[in-house]
Structures are given as C-alpha cells and as structure tokens.
Predict the 3D structure of the following.
Amino acid sequence: MIPSVGRHARWAALAVTALTLVAACGGSSTSNNGGTVTFKGTKNVGISTALSGQSALYGHAIQQSLKLAEDEINKAGGVNGYKINVEVQDDTTAVDPAVNNTKQMILQDNVVAMIGPVTSAQCAATSPISKANKVLFIAATCNSYQLTTQPSQINPYYISVVPNTYMEGCAAGTDTGKKGTTNIFIVSPDYLFGRSETNAFVSCLKKTNPSVKIANDPSTWFVKYPHTDWSPEVAQIQAAKPTLVYSNIFAADQISFINKATQTDPQWFTKYPLVTLASVDELQTLKDKYPIGMRLYMRAPFFQLSNPKLDAFVSSYKARYNGEFPSDWAVMDYDAIKMWATAANAAKSFDSDTVKKQIVGKSFDSLRGYKFTIRADDQQANVGETIGTTADSGGKYPFPILKDATNLSGNDLIMPLDLVNKLKGGQCKNDDFANCP
C-alpha cells in the first residue's frame, strides 16, 4: 500500500505542476458541444461604451451583444487558438472617460482590437489613440462621415460597419423630400454627429424638393447635448406651426422630448409629425407610449430585417437576457466583432496591419441578411438603412413596428468616391460634402 500511495502522490504532484505551467502560459479551456477546447491563452478586445449617462440604453445592448458573440466565438474555437475576452469599460457617455479607458485598454491591457464608442465625439477623441498605437478600431455605432474623410481625423486602422451620417442623413432627406412636405422645423444635438447628419439631411432634402422651406433659422437648429429640458423647443415648435419636425436626437434625449411633447399636448405628434433617427431601444423603452405615425430611419431593426440567421440571434438574445429584444446596436456590434474574428482567423495573426488586409476590400456575412464589403477608399461598409412609419404591431411586440417600410441598399447610399476624394484632399470648406467644389 505504501508504494501505491507514493505513486498517487507523485502523479498528484505532476498534475499540479502541469496545471501551474498551463496557468503561467495563459492556457484555458471551454466547453464545446460536450467536449473541451484548450486555448493557448486569452486575448482582449476592448470597448469603452456608455453603460451610464445619456446613451446608457445603447451601451447596455452593446455590452450584452458582445458578450453573446464572445461566447459563440470561444465555443467555435476562439481566434487563432486563443480565447477571446471582451473587456467593457463605462465611459458615462462622455469624452474624457472614453479617452482614459481607451488608453488603459491599449497601453496596459494590450487589447488586440477596439470596438468604437457610442457617439462621434467619443470616436473622434479615441481614434487618434488607436492610430498612434496601430490598433484596429471598428466603429459600429458612431458614424460621422468626417471620421473617415476629414484629413485631420483619417486613421488607417479605423473601419466603419455602420451607415455614416452622409448615408442616413441623405436617406432621410430624400425620403422626406419625395413626400412633398413644405415647412420643416429642425432640432438636433449640437456636436459632430448632430451637425453632420442634419446638414446631410438638409442638403439631400433640398436637392429632392427645391421648394421646401425650413421654419427656423439655422442658428437655432442645434441644442445642447445632452438635453434635459425640452420646454423651450416645444414652445418654439408650437409657435412655428411646421408641417413636419426633423431631428436626430436619440436615447435619453429622444425619450425625454417625446414625454415632454405628449405631456404638453396628447395630439402633439399628430399635429407635428416627426422624422427622426431611432432604434429598437427607444421603442422598447416607451412601449405603447411611443407615438404612432412617426417616420423613423433605423440602422438594423430586427423585425424588419427578419432572416434565419437574425431570427436565431433574436431567440438566443432573448433567452439569455430575460426576454429583451436586441436593438439595432446589438445587431451591429455583433456583426463588428464577428467580422474582426473572421478576419483575424483568416490572417492567422493579431497584428493589425495583417488583419486589416483580411478586412479591407473583403465581404462579410451579417445578421442583417446581406453581405457587406469594406471599401478601400474610406474603409466604410456598404451597409443599409431602413425607413418606415411607426404603427401598432398588432400584439406581436410590446412596442410599435414600421409600416410602409423600405430597406435601402448600402450600395445606393454610400458616398460617391469623387466626394470622398475631395473631402480627404481638404477641398471642402468645414469638411462638409455640401461645400465641395
């Protein structure tokens, strides 16, 4: 018995030593269809996003989606034999925390890629950090076209998989112009995104309908962001009596505007129909209190883009997150990290330049039901936009959906290359495509 005990002790000691070596090398394992996948170690993908503050609705959905994608990637064997960990940090929807978070994740936590923050202001501040350190930066929410065309902002490691402000501003402007509305009031957030998208809306609106009139002076179009007291704007709209209101306010700002307007007049959105950017998040938050008859442009509404792959994602998301429906941001950020994982596996590397060669000019599957391609000239994806009018879902969902909806192709929306080249060449005043020669 004594020799047997000795053998067991030696085997135990060897096992402990082996485990210690694996831990020291960063090795790990995960379950895979009843089996076990052993990883070489762990690689971090970082994101600084809005888990609190004005855009907390969006950050909540983004974090959940990325964690769902993380599990799926690791169950499929990870990336290049490594387990992927999505490191999420809260930037409170503010620029300074986003900068600090990004520096920490790149310089201290050695992330191999970054997913972009929510707002264009945060992306404008953090993209240079990615550029300086040669870390891929994949934007799935922030979308001002200046981030890929403005000479001072161009970052060779910046990839956009979200329709930019030119694409969706022009989509909304063209749609509105075709409807023949004559007197429009504008109210939008005063920062890069709000100005960029509003200017694109107005430019394409006037191109489609030259006789259109804007009810308020351009000096009043933009309001402080974030915005909490909408009383002045509600009063101004009532006084102007427009036939339509255009805005790209979002998240908490949009919800507070809707609440203030309907408290002022329950028939507000019948008298002053609104055209605005929106997502499933706003619909899901207000539920049946979200106004009917609003014209929404949306980036990835699951109920309008239904396809087998997306339907399976919706089921998995709801099952994991207590019946929540995935927002547009959940869909797009899932597509973003899956694109990166596919490219890194194809590259057999985590080096940003090597992985980038497997992204730029390549096409990728998406939850949105179509393949998208990253154009080399501005590293912008030809992703689509959905436009429709809010209507009761007939009990299918606890919030309105869209009727008279159109899924617009990214090929029809993407900025023409002559404009891209003029912007990149610094030929356009204020980096505005409407001011190009």
In short: Residues 1-25 have pLDDT under 50 and may be disordered. The CA atoms of residues 68 and 195 lie 34 Å apart. The chain has two domains: 41-164+306-319+327-373, 166-305+385-414. Residues 41-164+306-319+327-373 form a domain with the Rossmann fold fold (CATH 3.40.50.2300).
